[in-house]
Design a protein that fits this description.
With 179 residues, the chain is of the alpha+beta class. The chain is 21% helix and 32% strand. The chain has five helices and twelve strands. The strands form two sheets. Strands 1, 4, 5, 8, 9, 10 and 11 form a seven-stranded antiparallel sheet that branches. It has a five-stranded mixed sheet with strand order 3-2-12-6-7. It comes from Jeongeupia chitinilytica. Keywords: Signal. This is Oxidoreductase molybdopterin-binding domain-containing protein.
Length: 179
């Protein structure tokens, strides 16, 4: 009984976050990332959305370039209020196609200058998704797009610092070299 009463004394934001967390616990796990056989319309956005590679060999990719890879989907309920199906491509497929699969550490950067270095062990084991669509529509900049790096296996722990691996407005991926 005391535990129940303590919940009601929690701040309102804690209750809202807990409710979203509880709603989402059965929604996503790493095994829920599934191939998406649905035919996606050609992207309306024809601009460069991702720079990938190092200073010697940088590729400028459009949504069409990324979406030429196999498509995947995952249903998620996120603490930021989004609940639905994200579609995109596997990070590992992107790295293989564009020559970064053997990198030991990659630097991921967002449009707002957020940058994080992620070890290969992390992305190889967990196989994150680069989301290009939400509910089959391209993700706009105001919706934290056009690219988002999602880690579906950790939706239950987003309130921790591990959620810092989630990147919205992803704009570049490059290998980290000894500097």
């Amino acid at each position: 009984m005391r535990k129940i009463l303590r919940i009601f004394h929690a701040p309102l934001w804690t209750l809202a976050t807990t409710a979203l967390f509880l709603q989402g616990t059965s929604w996503a796990a790493a095994t829920d990332v599934q191939p998406d056989p649905q035919l996606w319309p050609a992207p309306a956005n024809r601009e460069v959305v991702l720079r990938i590679g190092d200073g010697r060999q940088v590729r400028m990719l459009t949504l069409a370039d990324l979406e030429s890879l196999p498509h995947y989907k995952v249903k998620l309920a996120l603490i930021w209020g989004e609940r639905g199906t994200f579609q995109g491509v596997r990070l590992n497929d992107v790295l293989k196609r564009y020559g970064l699969a053997n990198s030991k550490v990659l630097r991921f950067s967002a449009a707002d200058r957020y940058t994080i270095d992620i070890n290969a062990a992390e992305w190889l084991r967990r196989d994150p998704l680069i989301a290009t669509r939400f509910e089959t529509r391209e993700i706009g900049i105001r919706q934290k797009g056009p690219l988002r790096l999602l880690w579906p296996d950790e939706t239950a722990s987003l309130e921790s610092t591990r959620g810092m691996l989630w990147i919205w407005n992803l704009v570049s991926i490059k290998p980290v070299t000894a500097e």
